[in-house]
Design a protein that fits this description.
This protein has one domain: Rossmann fold (3-Layer(aba) Sandwich). About 30% of the residues lie in helices and about 20% in strands. It contains seven helices and seven strands, in the order αααβαβαββαβαββ. Strand 4, helix 6 and strand 5 form a beta-alpha-beta unit. The longest helix has 11 residues. The chain binds S-adenosylmethionine. S-adenosylmethionine binds next to loops.
């Protein structure tokens, strides 16, 4: 079984307040998901974005939905139903060898990296699977919403994020963040070093 770095309660991922405050369309507009795109939703959870992604990519698009939490992924699967465009992968985003190198147009990492131990490993995989010119959208909570939690802090410190951006040849595109949620758009250059 793939390790789940942090479990998320389905009700915290899918609720009317979240849909109202932060509809999936807003992040997908920033990511620029288009007709016929191949999209990887890494840490897909209960599939908050997946119906909208499938609507946008149309009949010739494809979606890799990745999450080591099989229970959450099962909720996403039930929501989407049987759809030949979707590949369900109950594995860690740090080990997505099942997704071929340079095969993906868009990677979505929504509120995932703040739940991961191996943040660099996941970003390296993101780089590997993206096509040249492909784009990744990464959002994470800037601060813990459970300050007294005894759980290990997986918070993304600014210095760690800056080092992640420098680790590869990412082109950083500016996108708006909020006081609670940091958002980043990273593009793999057309002609990129490995
Ligand atoms: C806060 S939820 C976000 C879910 C979804 N991206 C969203 O925005 O609704 C974080 C997700 O990361 C998943 N996760 C934990 N460890 C992971 C890993 N190693 N690789 C990929 N996903 C992981 C959890 O199972 C959970 O579904």
């Amino acid at each position: 079984m793939a390790p789940i770095d942090r479990r998320c309660w389905p009700g915290s991922l899918e609720n009317p307040l979240r849909r109202w405050l932060s509809p999936p369309s807003r992040d997908l507009d920033l990511l620029g998901v288009e007709e016929s795109d191949v999209v990887a939703d890494l840490g897909a959870g209960v599939g908050f974005y997946d119906l909208e992604i499938l609507h946008r990519v149309g009949p010739h698009g494809r979606l890799f939905a990745v999450d080591p939490d099989g229970d959450n992924l099962e909720v996403a699967h039930r929501r989407v139903k049987e759809d030949p465009r979707v590949v369900w992968l109950p594995i860690s985003a740090a080990q997505v060898d099942a997704i071929p190198e340079g095969s993906v147009d868009r990677v979505l990492l929504s509120l995932v990296i703040c739940c991961l131990v191996d943040k660099e490993g996941v970003m390296d995989q993101t780089w590997r699977i993206l096509k040249p010119g492909g784009v990744a959208f990464v959002s994470y909570l800037r601060r813990s919403i459970r300050p007294r939690s005894r759980r290990q802090s997986l918070r993304v410190l600014p210095s760690r994020w800056e080092a992640i951006e420098r680790r590869r040849g990412w082109v950083v595109r500016p996108v708006p963040s909020s006081w609670l949620v940091a958002r980043h758009l990273l593009q793999k250059p057309e002609a990129s070093p490995r």
